[in-house]
């Protein structure tokens, strides 16, 4: 008997698959299509992390299962290779980022191939390849032509040490996501993308896709759509407009707050009696980040503005005006009507400044805390809306405020336009030039790709301009429109760009005329199943959905949404339950595991480790268990039997396992599918024999998880062709029912009868069955039962 030699087997089959192109998808097939997608990796210098294969193996299982089930499967992979870590490494080691990227990709690719994932390598893409980014630039030009890209001077998050502008999402708790350094605000001319114009569609179209619920919620929360009203409050000789989602609480608005950046401070400066105090507060607020102002639950601060009278338009009472940094200039109108009885932040502020709190919705104790419930309680102290519930009150007061001309219904969004410029080298050049006469002009499509010029130094400049700005021959150019003098945009695109449309390119990766042919896109899109990390379910998903909608609007794609289904996996933690990281020294290197136990064991372990959607700690014991199981499957060769009898013994279990594995593989329950196969193998050993057919079934079911060893056994056993050409088994519903067995019934130690029952009958049920058996019933007649002993599946003994 051959020993199980994973190294030899795995290499052999990986080469064979690649040589035959077994996993190459066809753009022209009679079969139904299936397009599973995993987030393509950023090829960092650290190599593959054990977290990557969790997603890749999961969808590989589904991909392999679907191929065996008769589908034409496209399971692609590529490289999201622009970005800061590579650039920073390049600067430090004085190697061109292109070279760094090449090396990292080679390493990642070697690692992925050693795992035997059934990627279609013929469609590999790389976002830094000019043939790829030509189309990223083309899409940018479409955005520009549609007026969805514009340049705007605006405060941006500026990291002093990376010397780069950051998108809001790259600022984590007021610090730079990349280097951890302090982030300050700085005015800079930036290219912006008008994602806000798509806010409604990005929310509403979520109804048409099958994403796990928490992902939908994240998308909605990020967009943050609020239905409310703008209401005008008389202020001095003019008025201030507030945005509120609770117009029903207007009678409880006992003061007003404006943001420190609100222009009225300058406009009415001459009226403000305590101007110095107000200006000092304004300066103090400017030093805080938005995060500090809103997310950190610090004491509420503020200053009362004296000299500017404000009237509540419904109570007609004069109310005080405050400036406080908990009101942001970037949301709504930058001023609010404060309702301390029913808004938590206002309540805290009112307590800190000893302001009156008026209850306008009954049901709570507003002296203690804000009563924010909107589903119960009725309006009080509210004149025309007294006695109504919140919903009705809202409608009535809105109509009233509109009728007297001081209120308008308004929808607000948390979502902001997308800061799309980076002052960096290693990104796609923005394909625009600026002409004195014509303004911003896109370069003609025939000049795409606009490639990155060679430079000696990629260092960001001290003035914050892109390193490209220092290459005069590149910057100086002519205007495509008037032929006059023009200069190129020197900012590059953010890393998000290339990943916002990559799933389209896989459909037709070497097309030079289009980002992908319409035909190929119509065939493959939408992605049937997209799996990736929870960390990407907000922005990457939103940005790529946005780009896809723009492409839909320009007629480049036919689907409204790019992904029909989205799932997410949990993280793999260190053995001690902490996040794996270099500094903690708990990083598991996939190479070591593959070397010692083999890719099949590694894959199986990654899927067996725990619930796919939860974070789980790594365990070296667990990996050994998976290796033992694979060896047991290997050794089943030794008990192969010709007699059908062995198949009868396990028939029900085989059909149950087919059913379970088939369902579990499609519903992210990889761990329970593997457990079911493990217990089936135990049954084969208990039966002391296995038939050829049952062995074949097991191998096909296990193939998506452990593709190499199953192919090898299949070929050793000469089961016909290659396993990857086999057909996925179907269970027979009629064979799922447990078999029945005959149980002897003893009365006082003597067998008096036999009853036929289901094999897994309970003690209670068998007693009922026995008592109703005619002979037994006769024997028991009139006697008192002292004891009943049931040896499951063997014998029932009644003592009278
Ligand atoms: C009065 C009120 C009474 C409010 C009440 C809430 C509850 P969302 O849902 O997030 O849109 N607000 C408006 N603009 C603001 C700004 N620039 N900075 C800080 N807060 C602002 O929140 C809308 C609510 O947030 C608005 O409704 C307003 O407070 C506050 F019982 O108005 B509300
Ligand atoms: Zn011009």
From TrEMBL:
Query: Motif 'KMSKS' region in this chain: where?
Result: 579-583
Any one GO MF term held by the record is: leucine-tRNA ligase activity
| Keyword hit for Aminoacyl-tRNA synthetase | yes
Kindly list the places in or outside the cell where this protein is found, as annotated in its UniProt entry. Cytoplasm
Instruction: Give the source's domain of life in one word.
Output: Bacteria
Q: Which CDD domains match?
A: Anticodon_Ia_Leu_BEm, LeuRS_core
Q: Which residues form the Aminoacyl-tRNA synthetase class Ia domain?
A: 12-216, 415-605
Instruction: Using the record's annotation, list all stretches that form the Leucyl-tRNA synthetase editing domain.
Output: 220-402
Q: What class of enzyme is it?
A: ligase
- Residues annotated as binding ATP: 582
Q: Looking at the keywords, is ATP-binding present? A: yes
Q: What is the reaction catalyzed?
A: tRNA(Leu) + L-leucine + ATP = L-leucyl-tRNA(Leu) + AMP + diphosphate
Methionyl/Valyl/Leucyl/Isoleucyl-tRNA synthetase anticodon-binding domain ranges (all copies):
653-763
Any idea which UniProt keywords this protein has?
Aminoacyl-tRNA synthetase, ATP-binding, Cytoplasm, Ligase, Nucleotide-binding, Protein biosynthesis
- Name the EC number(s): 6.1.1.4
Instruction: State the InterPro entries in the record.
Output: aa-tRNA-synth_Ia, Leu-tRNA-ligase, Leu_tRNA-synth_edit, M/V/L/I-tRNA-synth_anticd-bd, Rossmann-like_a/b/a_fold, tRNAsynth_Ia_anticodon-bd, Val/Leu/Ile-tRNA-synth_edit
Family annotation (HAMAP family): Leu_tRNA_synth_B (MF_00049_B)
List the NCBIfam families hit by this protein, alphabetically. Answer: leuS_bact
This protein's name: Leucine--tRNA ligase
Organism for this UniProt entry: Acetoanaerobium pronyense
Identify the taxonomic lineage of the organism of origin: Bacteria, Bacillati, Bacillota, Clostridia, Peptostreptococcales
């Amino acid at each position: 008997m051959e020993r199980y030699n994973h190294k030899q087997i795995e290499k052999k089959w990986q080469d064979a698959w690649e040589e035959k192109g077994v996993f190459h998808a066809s753009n022209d097939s009679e079969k139904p299509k299936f397009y599973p997608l995993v987030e393509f990796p950023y090829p960092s210098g650290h190599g593959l992390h054990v977290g990557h294969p969790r997603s890749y193996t999961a969808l590989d299982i589904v991909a392999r299962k679907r191929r065996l089930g008769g589908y034409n499967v496209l399971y692609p992979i590529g490289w999201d290779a622009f970005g800061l870590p590579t650039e920073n490494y390049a600067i430090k080691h004085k190697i061109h980022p292109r070279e760094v990227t090449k090396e990292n990709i080679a390493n990642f690719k070697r690692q992925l191939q050693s795992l035997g994932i059934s990627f279609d390598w013929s469609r590999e893409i790389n976002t830094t390849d000019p043939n790829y980014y030509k189309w990223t630039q083309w899409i940018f030009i479409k955005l520009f032509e549609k007026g969805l890209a514009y340049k705007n001077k605006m405060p941006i998050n500026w990291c002093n040490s990376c010397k780069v502008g950051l998108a809001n999402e790259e600022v984590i708790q007021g610090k730079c996501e990349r280097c951890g350094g302090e982030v300050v605000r700085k005015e800079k001319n930036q290219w912006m993308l008008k994602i806000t114009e798509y806010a409604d569609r990005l929310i509403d179209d979520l109804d048409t896709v099958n994403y796990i619920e928490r992902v939908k919620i994240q998308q909605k929360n990020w967009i943050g759509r609020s239905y409310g009203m703008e209401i005008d409050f008389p202020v001095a000789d003019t008025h201030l407009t507030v945005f509120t989602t609770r117009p029903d609480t207007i009678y409880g608005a006992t003061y007003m707050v404006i943001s420190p950046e609100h222009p009225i401070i300058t406009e009415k400066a001459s009226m403000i009696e305590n101007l110095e105090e107000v200006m000092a507060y304004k300066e103090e607020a400017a030093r805080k980040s938005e995060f500090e102002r809103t997310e950190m639950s610090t004491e509420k601060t503020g200053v009362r503005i004296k000299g500017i009278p404000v009237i509540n338009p419904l109570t007609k009472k004069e109310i005080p005006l405050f400036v406080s940094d908990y009101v942001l200039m970037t949301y709504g109108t930058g001023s609010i009507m404060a309702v301390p009885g029913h808004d938590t932040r206002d309540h805290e502020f009112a307590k800190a400044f000893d302001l009156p709190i008026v209850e306008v919705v009954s049901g709570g104790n507003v002296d203690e805390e804000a009563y924010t419930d909107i589903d119960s309680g009725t309006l009080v102290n509210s004149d025309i809306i007294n006695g109504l519930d919140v919903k009705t009150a809202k409608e009535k007061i809105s109509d009233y405020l509109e009728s007297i001309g001081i209120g308008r219904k308004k929808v607000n969004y948390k979502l902001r336009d997308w800061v799309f410029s980076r002052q960096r080298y290693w990104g796609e050049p923005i394909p625009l030039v600026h002409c004195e006469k014509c303004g911003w002009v896109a370069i003609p499509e025939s000049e795409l790709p606009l490639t990155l010029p060679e430079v000696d130094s990629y260092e960001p400049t001290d003035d914050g301009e892109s390193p490209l700005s220092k290459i005069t021959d590149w910057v100086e150019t002519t205007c495509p429109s008037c032929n006059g003098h023009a200069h190129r945009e020197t900012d590059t695109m953010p890393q998000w760009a290339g990943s916002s449309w990559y799933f389209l390119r896989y459909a037709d990766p070497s097309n030079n005329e289009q980002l992908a042919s319409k035909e190929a896109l119509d065939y493959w899109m939408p992605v049937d199943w997209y799996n990736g990390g929870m960390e990407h379910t907000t922005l990457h998903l939103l940005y790529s959905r946005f780009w896809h909608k723009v492409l839909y609007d320009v007629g480049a794609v036919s689907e409204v949404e790019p992904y029909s289904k989205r799932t997410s996996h949990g993280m793999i933690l260190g053995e001690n339950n902490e996040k794996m990281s270099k500094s903690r020294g708990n990083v598991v290197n996939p190479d070591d595991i593959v070397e010692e136990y083999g890719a099949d064991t590694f894959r199986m372990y990654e899927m067996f480790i725990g619930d796919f959607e939860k974070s789980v700690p790594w365990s070296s014991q667990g990996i050994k268990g998976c290796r033992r199981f694979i060896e047991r499957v290997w050794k089943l060769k030794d008990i192969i039997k010709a007699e059908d009898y062995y198949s009868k013994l396990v028939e029900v279990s085989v059909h149950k396992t087919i059913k379970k594995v088939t369902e579990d593989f499609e519903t992210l329950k990889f761990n329970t599918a593997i457990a079911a196969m493990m217990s089936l193998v135990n049954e084969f050993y208990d039966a002391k024999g296995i038939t050829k057919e049952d062995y074949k079934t097991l191998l096909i079911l296990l193939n998506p998880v452990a593709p190499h060893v199953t192919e090898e056994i299949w070929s050793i056993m000469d089961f016909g062709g290659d396993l990857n050409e086999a057909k996925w088994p179907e269970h027979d519903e009629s064979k799922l029912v447990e078999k029945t067995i005959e149980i002897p019934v003893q009365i006082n130690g003597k067998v008096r009868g036999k009853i036929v029952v289901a094999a897994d009958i309970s003690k209670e049920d068998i007693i009922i069955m026995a008592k109703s058996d005619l002979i037994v019933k006769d024997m028991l007649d009139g006697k008192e039962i002292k004891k009943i002993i049931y040896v499951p599946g063997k014998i029932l003994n009644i003592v009278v």
